[in-house]
């Protein structure tokens, strides 16, 4: 099959810009309308519950990522540090709180929005991060609004029925607590509809990511970090499902055409851990120069929710959030990564050790060594952070990646 340079999903990217503009402008309008209700929510959910109850959803984690991607985060982190928030905790958290304290937001430049909408309630889930409780509690005090949370069992090797029952019961109690704010009790039929839409969007998102299994890959990890926005902030909506249907069609057409995201692709990497948002272009250009394609990541795959089932909405929401990769045991992660290496024909894993994100850093308890000794899977660990650019060295990183490429190029490719 002939290899061509990928047009980089340009049609879908144009649709994405319009979709996100509509989301943010609608959110801004809802925040200014007393008749509308706004909920701030963690990326792990419970999105579908809030969507079904009529809340407009805003995601502080997404705002933190935007601050990082625009390289504005470092300037705000010190503001939160001065308020007593440690420089060692999540830099999404400190950058976001710092921006709030300075009354600044990248949403102004991007969409003409002066500030995120004031919340009527803050809702978190600890399955992806334990620090979100303290993050949202800060805003609960700032705005004088309720803070509700789902507390998930952590580091599970397997998910038993007792854990699912526990989280399902928490979701039931949360729905009861939200009803007075929403102005009506949970409509179970509407919840089933929302969960079905989320499930469909998730299935399309998974299909898109799996186009990275092709040789050459028509997509990169960096493409996925762009196109993942709707699956994070707009789950449970028809527009999101339809967007991902179109994205899949475009990506699968590239597979059939033999299009390559990285021209002359020689090696295939797997990215584990958080993105380094302010340095994605650096990594993309470095990999392109070395003819390396980062074809998959645990980060982007974390928004694939195979468990969602509209026939049992709350129970399947509980299962989906409990089974997310970040929330699993070291043994589970080892098996998961071994299978991913085989599925995507990976030559090596890049472990991103994010200084302020221990919950999604998987290189601290011997996992890279076990993968090498037990499975022959090579890797290197890159040191940085999700937002704080002071934790990152371009020279050190370039040296590490080039050394790995040289080692891999000196041996036969993985079967």
Strand and helix layout:
Blueprint: E1 4-5, H1 10-31, E2 38-41, H2 47-52, E3 56-58, H3 60-69, H4 73-82, H5 91-101, H6 107-111, E4 121-125, H7 132-143, E5 147-150, H8 161-182, H9 188-210, H10 221-227, H11 229-233, H12 238-257, E6 259-260, E7 267-272, H13 280-290, E8 292-297, H14 298-301, H15 313-322, H16 330-343, E9 348-354, H17 367-375, E10 378-384, H18 394-409
Parallel strand pairs: 1-6, 2-3, 2-4, 4-5, 7-8, 7-9, 9-10
Helix pairs in contact: 1-12, 3-5, 4-5, 8-15, 9-12, 16-17
Commentary on this structure:
By secondary structure, this protein is an alpha/beta fold. Helices cover 52% and strands 11% of the residues. It contains 18 helices and 10 strands. A 4-stranded parallel sheet has the order 3-2-4-5, with helices on both faces. A 4-stranded parallel sheet has the order 8-7-9-10, sandwiched between helices. Helix 1 (10-31) runs antiparallel to helix 12 and helix 9 (188-210) runs parallel beside helix 12. The two termini are 19 Å apart. The model is unreliable at 1-6 (pLDDT under 50).
What structural keywords apply?
disordered N terminus, alpha/beta, globular, 18 helices, 4-stranded parallel β-sheet, 415 residues
Summarize the structure.
The chain is α/β, with parallel strands linked by helices and 415 residues long.
